[in-house]
Amino acid sequence: MAVKQISVFMENRAGKISAVTRLLGNGGIDIRAMSLADTTDFGILRIVVNDTEKAMKILEENNFSATTTKVLAVGLDDKPGGLAAVMEALYADNIGVEYMYAFVSREAEKAYVMLRVADNDFASKVLKEKGFILLNSGDLFGEK
Amino acid sequence: MSKYWNEEIECMSREDMKKLQSERLVTQVKHVYENVPYYKKLMDEKGVTPDDINGIEDLHKLPFLTKADLREAYPYGLLAKPLSDCVRIQSTSGTTGKRVVAFYTQNDIDIWENCCARAIVAAGGTKDDVCQVCYGYGLFTGGPGLNGGSHKVGCLTLPMSSGNTERQIQFMMDLKSTILCCTPSYAAYIGESLKEMGYKPEDNKLKAGIFGAEPWTEEMRREIEKSLGIKAYDIYGLTETSGPGVSFECEEQTGMHINEDHFIAEIIDPKTGEVLPEGSKGELVFTSITKEAFPLLRYRTRDICVLTREKCSCGRTLVKMSKPMGRSDDMMIIRGVNVFPSQIETVLIEQGYSPNYLIEVDRVNNTDTLDISVEMNAEQFSDTIKDIQKKEAELVAAIKTMLGINPKVHLVSPKSIARSEGKAVRVIDKRKLH
Lengths: 144, 434
Fold this sequence. Notes:
- Chain A has 2 domains: 3-69, VC0802-like; 71-136, VC0802-like (2-Layer Sandwich), CATH 3.30.2130.10.
- Chain A is α+β, with helices and mostly antiparallel strands.
- Chain A is globular, with a radius of gyration of 16 Å.
- Helix content of chain A is 33%, strand content 38%.
- The longest helix of chain A is centred in the N-terminal third of the chain and has 11 residues, at 16-26.
- Chain B has helices spanning 7-10, 14-35, 37-46, 67-72, 106-122, 142-153, 165-174, 184-196, 218-228, 341-350, 385-403; strands spanning 86-91, 101-105, 130-133, 156-159, 179-182, 208-212, 231-237, 244-249, 256-258, 263-268, 281-288, 299-308, 320-321, 332-334, 337-339, 357-364, 367-375, 408-412, 427-429.
- Chain B starts with 6 loop residues before the first helix and ends in a 5-residue tail after the last strand.
- Classes of the chains: A alpha+beta, B alpha/beta.
- The A-B interface holds A 5, 7, 9-11, 37, 39, 41-42, 44, 46, 60, 63-67, 69, 98-99, 116 and B 376-378, 380-385, 388-389, 392, 410-416.
């Protein structure tokens, strides 16, 4: 129950983000979720897209270092304490979060976060047992 | 076909070679003294006359020439023949300051091309080979030198010059090139391009490469050999003495045999000018003993290396010079430490990075800074910041171990550092020290 995320390495240079997004846009790639982690030197753009394979091909052809990682897409209630409940569930089982980012949904009253943890299977099991919804790629792109 | 181009010379006994060098030196010193007022003045100032030079044992009495002399004497000051006897001019790549121009008589050209022919034969070249020369043609000596050598050997010569990599590869494949001559950085780039175009190393017909004109490391040699499926031979030379072919590598790949019948090599202490005993590391000095138009005596190359006379398995008796650690033009002094780009390159390749890098040196608040950009490929990239920072930290530590100073390392995207088709630009020194 995980979704494929693409991470793109980007040295801090003017025009890099603009170049990547334009390339993907021209290739008909729909970005469903994204985050940008940065340091003084470089950044990592993380995206979840409708066609991972095609996006990877475009990135490779244009000399970007990109890699795919499985992350968990978790649905939670869009109300105060909604996110805390997810975090508590993970913490209770001693699951550390490497990074996470939120993304918007087209469904009312639901919020979503992408979670990167060390062990996806274990974290999925824990979250499901506690009643959280985990989305797969179909859920992310099939709901239109 | 013999494995030597000129067996008599290449395998000559030490005694005979000394005798030949002595005779030629005595004649050459007279020729220079009588025809080059600039050098006569230097000799007079030192109180040396041609009568004091009776053999190579007297070589140390002669004054040195440096690149500064060549610049001062530009353009005709060191010319030893009337211009009407000269047939060619070549020039240095001119990366630092004023260019140096060198003159050649037809005899000079013949000798130079024969030196290159020795290098090609040592790399296994015969008249049945197809020799693709992608050194630059023109003022740069790389193209004309290897082109001439290739003709002498009788190879089918492809005078490609540098650049237009797609065309290089098309010719290489269609016309079945067997020997590739270019700078090592361009050879690496061709290897990379072949791979990108879907070719495997065994798809080409190349068997050997003759690479020179810039410093390169043993690690880079192995990379090139692997990517092109060849044996890679080093070649050395400088415009001031002729061009490529001053020395060349044999199949043993343990140093370059100097064409001693044309060039007498010495190693000196770069600080004191004192001649060092064999096996010492120091600055390489050449005396051209056959050159007619532009005969430099005791020219300081600023290349740091070691000479050895250990018996070579190839049978040649010509003295061998180690791969120069770098020309002192390339040497940077950063925070008081001598740094050669080749040292940094060694570390990068050892750590599994590509030999495409850029060194930037600057001075901020009176302290030198060393920034190294290194390309990271997709396989090396992992999804988390801390992994990349760990990679950078590992590189910093390895470079610090090698140089003794702390660099900043920046990992960058593949292909983001400009590729070279001739001599690679590896260093940008932004310090304004002069």
